[in-house]
Amino acid sequence: MPAPTEASAPRPAPAPAAPSAPGRRAQAGALVLAAVVVALDQLTKAAASRAFADGSHRTVLPGFFDLRLALNDGAAWSMLSGRRWLLAGVSAAMLALLAWNRRELCATRLSRIAAGLLAGGIVGNLLDRLRTGRVVDFLDWHWRAAYTFPTFNLADTAICIGVGLLVLASLPCFRARP
After folding, report:
1. Which of 66, 128, 137, 140 is an active site residue?
2. CB 75 within 8 A of CB 129
3. Which of 19, 30, 53, 172 lies most in the core, judged by the most C-beta atoms within 10 Å?
4. What is the pLDDT of residues 85-95, one digit of tens each?
């Protein structure tokens, strides 16, 4: 029986592909969204800090919405006020958790958007906390004089929307959509 020639010898199976380009592209998309959120957050906070440093405010919708400067050294509703480093550590831990779970978080379009909003919002507030020890808030919703919602900023908005989208993305009806 003749020896197998190079042309007739079995060929080895192709090596497994490197992580897919769409996976990396998806993660890059979430990072770009996060960067846009951070940039918009920091720009709006700088503008509000300049415009309302004297304690003034601007009424946008009378009885409902004002722009006013508020410096918060705590978390939402001033919880943990004065615990700058604890809150910075929690923010850093949340960013690490997002990075650790980035493949799962970038599995669907909805979860990618959620991850980008969460990361951008966390970084936006963390930058304030590290730079000055306080977060700049300026969006003030209220119902006449009867109810005032805590003043917040774009980073807070991104975090809340990101959490909501992450909850939606975890529902079975949203999981199968890449």
Report:
1. 137
2. no
3. 30
4. 999 999 999 99
Which of 66, 128, 140, 156 is catalytic? The answer is 156
Q: Which residue has the tokens 């709006």?
A: 44
User: Domain range holding 65?
Assistant: 27-69+80-175
* Domain assignment present for 9: no
**Residue at 8 is within a domain:** no
What's the one-letter identity of residue 111? S
Tens-digit pLDDT profile for residues 50-64 = 999 999 999 999 999
- The yes-or-no answer on residue 66 being catalytic is no
Separation CA 130–CA 162 (nearest Å) = 22
Verify whether residue 137 is a known catalytic residue.
Answer: yes
Residue 107 counted as domain residue: yes
**In the block, residue with structure tokens 């190079």:** 6
Query: What is the spatial order of strands in the sheet that 147-148 belongs to?
Result: 57-61, 65-72, 135-143, 147-148
- Total structural domains within the chain: 1
pTM: 0.81
CA dist., res. 149 & res. 139, Å (int): 10
